[in-house]
Specification:
Layout lengths: L4 E5 L3 H12 L3 E6 L12 E3 L3 H6 L10 E9 L5 E12 L2 H14 L3 E4 L2 E7 L2 E6 L4 E4 L1 E4 L6 H5 L11 E10 L5 E7 L2 E7 L5 E8 H4 L5 H7 L5 H8 L1 E3 L5 E6 L7 E2 L2 E3 L14 H20 L6 H30 L2 H13 L2 H10 L5
Parallel strand pairs: 1-2, 1-10, 2-6, 4-12, 10-18
Antiparallel strand pairs: 3-5, 4-5, 7-8, 8-9, 11-14, 11-15, 11-16, 12-13, 13-14, 17-18
Length: 372
C-alpha cells in the first residue's frame, strides 16, 4: 500500500466529504479552507436521498441535524401556472451552515488536518505538488483535490477556459421565518430567472434564486428587483409577503458559470462545483458534490492500493467515472434552463407536462442519479 499525502483545496461540501472518506481509509489528508466555520453559503439546501447510503457508510448521522423530509415538487411558470408531482427518490432540507459545520467536525475527528488560510499558488513538478497560501505556508503533497467552488482566483491562475468569459448569472439567498410546507420544494420561474423554496432545519425557509445579470442591473438593489420582477410570480409574491428575513441582508454571489469544465486540470482532481455546476433548477447540485467526493476518493484509494499503477491511469479513470455519472446530467440541466428562461417555451413545456404528467418525473430522473 502506498502512503499518500493528499491536500484538498476547499472545505465545502465536496471537499469535506472527500476528506472524511479518504481519512476513513487511513490516508493522510490536509484541507485548506479560506473561511472560518460555520458559515452561510448561497445554496438551494435541498439534497436528494441518493446520498443516504453513502452517508451511512461514512458514519454521517444526518438525524443529529434534524433535516426536513421532502417528498414533493411544485413547478410554476412566471404567470403562476403550476404542476405538482412526487419526487421519485425524495430528499431532505438542510442548511449549509449546519451541514458543513457537522462535516468539518467529522473530518477533524477522522484525523484530517484543517488549515484556515487562502491558497495563492499550486505548482506541480517531478510528480509532487507545492501549495502556497497567502500567509506563506507551503505544503507538499502527492495529489491535490480541487474543491474551491464555483469560481476562484485559483481558476484564474490555472487559466481555465470557463474563467475567460464573463458569466451572466448571479444568485441571491436568504433564510426566512414564515409558513411553507415542510415536505415541498418549490421551483418558481420569473422573468430572467427562477427561484427555489424549501424548508431546512428549525422550521427555517430557504429562498434562493438565480437571475440573469442583464435583468438584475436594471434595478437599484435587491429589494427593487424582488418587488418588481421576482414577485411577479404570484406564488413568490405570497411567499415573500408572508415571510420575514432572518439575515441582516440576503447573501449574493455573481459570475456563476454553467459552462463545461474539465474534471482534471494541471493534474488537479476537480470535484463538486469546481468540476461542473448543474443549474439549480435541477435541484441536484449538493448530491452531485457529495457523489463526486466519493468518486475521487475511490480512485485515490485504488491508487494507494496499487490497483492503479500511474498518475496517468488514475486521471484517466477519474475522467471516465466523472463523465459517466455527470456529463449527461449537466447537459440536460443546460437544456432545461434554456427552455425555462424563455417564456413562450416555458409555457409550451408546461402545457405538454400537464397533458403528460409522467414527463416531469422523467425530467427529474434525467437530472438525478440512483442511490450510491
Amino acid at each position: 500500500m502506498r502512503n499518500l499525502e493528499i491536500v484538498i483545496i476547499g472545505g465545502g461540501l465536496a471537499g469535506l466529504t472527500a476528506g472524511i472518506h479518504l481519512s476513513k481509509k487511513g490516508i493522510s489528508v490536509t484541507i485548506i479552507e479560506k473561511n472560518d466555520f460555520p458559515k452561510h453559503k448561497v445554496c438551494g439546501e435541498y439534497v436528494s436521498n441518493e446520498v443516504l447510503s453513502y452517508f451511512d457508510y461514512l458514519d454521517i448521522q444526518l438525524s443529529d441535524l434534524k433535516p426536513t423530509t421532502i417528498t414533493k415538487l411544485l413547478f410554476s411558470t412566471t404567470d403562476g401556472t403550476s404542476i405538482n408531482t412526487k419526487l421519485p427518490l425524495g430528499g431532505f432540507g438542510i442548511s449549509r451552515y449546519e451541514l458543513d459545520f457537522y462535516l468539518y467536525k467529522k473530518a477533524i475527528a477522522n484525523g484530517c488536518k484543517i488549515i484556515i488560510e487562502e491558497v495563492e499558488e499550486v505548482t506541480f513538478n517531478n510528480e509532487k505538488f507545492a501549495i502556497t497560501t497567502s500567509q506563506g505556508t507551503i505544503l507538499n503533497s502527492d495529489f491535490v483535490i480541487g474543491a474551491f467552488g464555483k469560481r476562484s482566483t485559483i481558476d484564474i491562475k490555472l487559466n481555465r477556459n470557463f474563467i475567460k468569459q464573463k458569466s451572466p448569472w448571479l444568485a441571491v439567498k436568504g433564510h426566512y421565518s414564515g409558513e411553507f410546507p415542510s415536505d415541498l420544494v418549490g421551483l418558481y420561474n420569473f422573468k430572467g430567472g427562477y427561484c427555489g423554496v424549501s424548508k431546512v432545519e428549525k422550521n427555517i425557509i430557504n429562498i434562493c434564486y438565480l437571475a440573469e445579470y442583464k435583468e438584475f442591473k436594471k434595478y437599484k438593489n435587491i429589494n427593487d428587483f424582488q418587488n418588481l420582477v421576482v414577485k411577479k410570480n404570484p406564488h413568490l409574491n405570497k411567499i415573500f409577503e408572508n415571510s420575514k428575513l432572518l439575515f441582516e441582508k440576503p447573501l449574493t454571489i455573481s459570475q456563476i458559470s454553467f459552462e463545461e469544465k474539465l474534471a482534471v486540470e494541471n493534474h488537479i482532481l476537480m470535484i463538486g462545483d469546481t468540476a461542473g455546476l448543474i443549474h439549480p433548477l435541477c435541484g441536484n447540485g449538493m448530491a452531485m458534490a457529495i457523489h463526486s467526493a466519493k468518486l475521487v476518493s475511490e480512485v485515490l484509494i485504488d491508487f494507494s492500493n496499487n490497483e492503479l499503477k500511474t498518475r496517468t491511469e488514475l486521471e484517466k479513470k477519474y475522467n471516465k467515472v466523472w463523465n459517466f455519472n455527470f456529463k449527461k446530467r449537466l447537459k440536460t440541466g443546460r437544456l432545461l434552463a434554456n427552455i425555462i428562461l424563455k417564456p413562450k417555451l416555458s409555457v409550451a413545456l408546461m402545457r405538454i407536462i400537464i397533458l403528460f404528467p409522467f414527463l416531469l418525473k422523467t425530467i427529474i430522473k434525467k437530472t438525478h442519479g440512483k442511490p450510491f
